[in-house]
């Protein structure tokens, strides 16, 4: 890794899944689950998982990706992001329901904002990146907004998949997603 890393923040469903996906990619040095996209919490405290899950914070479950742009581009991260969740459903990914599971990109630079907007336009024009053919006719509703603040999730969420591979959620939801990513993006996988 070079000394120059950048940050990308995405929300595309449960952060256990997205964390596991992006940790596999070359050029990604860290992936941290957390919360963002809502207003600052009262009292300046970090929102809790329970508060976010109850829908009282306006935050989404997101991941903060630290990456080396010399090894992996923001556009490549966007490609993986859109290939691993359904950007056409409102507040839902699979069986996970609630605004905390919405599709969201939180940009930290104007360049990221422009790249995200252009990427979505390209997907809409070419019907690329959607998980299922039936999604091709539905508009992408991914929210794009500036990153205000990232609130790290509680410790038990960090590296969740690595610590809980045999749990039913990991076996039924995360494993199939990881296999798909490994097949579709084999050249991008860490050794």
Give a concise summary.
The chain has 191 residues and is an alpha+beta fold. It contains six helices and eight strands, in the order E-H-E-H-E-H-E-E-E-H-E-E-H-H.
How are the SSEs placed, and which strands pair?
Layout: E1 6-12, H1 15-23, E2 28-36, H2 49-53, E3 60-67, H3 74-83, E4 92-93, E5 96-97, E6 103-107, H4 110-126, E7 143-146, E8 151-152, H5 160-163, H6 168-184
Parallel strand pairs: 6-7
Antiparallel strand pairs: 1-3, 1-6, 2-3, 2-8, 4-5
Helix pairs in contact: 1-6, 3-4
EC number: 1.8.4.11
Enzyme class: oxidoreductase
Function: Has an important function as a repair enzyme for proteins that have been inactivated by oxidation. Catalyzes the reversible oxidation-reduction of methionine sulfoxide in proteins to methionine.
Broad CATH class: Alpha Beta
Task: Kindly report the spatial arrangement of strands forming the biggest sheet.
Answer: 7-6-1-3-2-8
Structural class: alpha+beta
Q: Strand count, sense and closure of the main sheet?
A: 6 strands, mixed
Shape: globular
CATH architecture: 2-Layer Sandwich
Radius of gyration over alpha carbons?
A: 16 Å
> What share of the residues does DSSP label as strand, in percent?
15-25%
């Amino acid at each position: 890794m070079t000394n120059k890393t950048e940050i990308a923040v995405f929300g595309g469903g449960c952060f256990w899944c997205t964390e596991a996906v992006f940790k596999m990619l070359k050029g990604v040095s860290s992936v941290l689950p957390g919360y963002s996209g809502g207003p600052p919490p009262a009292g300046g405290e970090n929102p809790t998982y329970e508060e976010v899950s109850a829908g009282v914070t306006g935050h989404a479950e997101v991941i903060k990706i630290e990456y080396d742009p010399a090894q992996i581009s923001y556009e490549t991260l966007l490609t993986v992001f859109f290939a691993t969740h359904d950007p056409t459903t409102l507040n839902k990914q699979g069986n996970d329901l609630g605004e905390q599971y919405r599709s969201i990109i939180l940009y930290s630079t104007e360049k990221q904002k422009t790249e995200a907007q252009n990427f979505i336009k390209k997907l809409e024009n070419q019907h690329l990146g959607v998980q299922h053919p039936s999604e091709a006719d539905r508009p992408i509703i991914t929210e794009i907004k500036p990153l205000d603040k990232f609130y790290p999730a509680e410790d038990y969420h960090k590296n969740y998949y690595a610590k809980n591979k045999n749990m039913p959620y990991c076996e039924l939801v995360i494993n199939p997603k990881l296999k798909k990513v490994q097949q579709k993006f084999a050249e991008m996988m860490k050794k």
